[in-house]
Amino acid sequence: MADILITENIKGSAIDALKQQFEVSFEPDLWQDSQALMEKVALYKAVIVRNQTQVTRELIQASPSLCVIGRSGAGLDNIDVAAATEAGIVVAFTPEQNSISVAELALGMMLSLARHIAPADRDTKAGGWNRHQFTGVELYGKTLGIIGLGRIGFRTAQRAKAFGMDIIGYDEYANPDAIAVSELRAPLFSLDDVLKQSDFISCHLPLTPQTQSIFDYEKFCLMKPSAYFVNTSRGEVVDEAGLLQALEEGKLAGAGLDVRQSEPPAVDAFCKLDSVIMTPHIAAFTKEGQGRVGESVCRDVAAVISGKPAKNFANFSVPDKRL
Hints:
By secondary structure, the protein is α/β, with parallel strands linked by helices. It folds into two domains: 2-97 and 287-305, NAD(P)-binding Rossmann-like Domain (Rossmann fold, 3-Layer(aba) Sandwich), CATH 3.40.50; 99-278, Rossmann fold (3-Layer(aba) Sandwich), CATH 3.40.50. Helix content is 34%, strand content 14%. The chain contains twelve helices and eleven strands. The chain has helices spanning 13-21, 34-41, 57-61, 81-86, 99-115, 117-125, 151-162, 179-182, 191-197, 217-221, 240-248, 287-305, and strands at residues 2-6, 24-26, 44-49, 68-71, 90-92, 143-147, 166-170, 200-203, 228-231, 254-257, 276-278. The protein has a six-stranded parallel β-sheet with strand order 7-6-8-9-10-11, sandwiched between helices. It has a five-stranded parallel β-sheet with strand order 2-1-3-4-5. Strand 9, helix 11 and strand 10 (254-257) form a beta-alpha-beta unit. The longest helix is centred in the C-terminal third of the chain and has 19 residues, at 287-305. The protein is globular.
């Protein structure tokens, strides 16, 4: 039985070190072929994925030797954790190793939107010098609504406070006495009230059946016409048709999108709007963040297949079955 299968383009020094200890098969395009993926995973003790590999119940049930699934990142929506748990398989992930990277991109998008950096750059490079056309607004004194006060939402809010922003939040599961809330001194409101009050919205929700398309046309219509929406979480939490309609009708001033409903997306109407900036799901992609993620997931995968407990896990630290 082989040791570790990597099904996406996951590289780095931690992977190189893993190859020195175990038999590691690197197949970065395997995630695109579901049948080949199922056949290959069945031959391994461990699999390391990012967000493109769909680790379904069917795949898990077809992999009796699998003992650990290593998720290189924080989101678990592409992994059937319940099925893995039933099969006694450890789901190791990296819940906060890339949080700083994501928070910094969220702030970068806010600054870019507020100061029209992307369209001003394009115009200037084309020979323009239209200073008054790109008059922006300050972050200072504005209200930032954090949707999802988890590790990333908390870090985004911390950094926004340094710009002099007032923080409010929505999180259905947040404990008002938790340090992430009390330290920010961020009052919690309903989602609708946060949307109505905020000058900037930063979304940090996981993808669940409850959050699927939670931001629809009606929700965007609650926002101020001068407000900006930033999403660095999951594209599926946004109804893109509703967002596009709201932008075209002037219901909000602009949007920053690092994630899309379908990735990679087709060239569409969003690409024609100067009020929208888009990046290709790179929020977690910094050298430092990916280094921490790689070290964490490789350490835990190596530990589990060596008979030791994982440190960051979504269900349990050791397999509930023999290797």
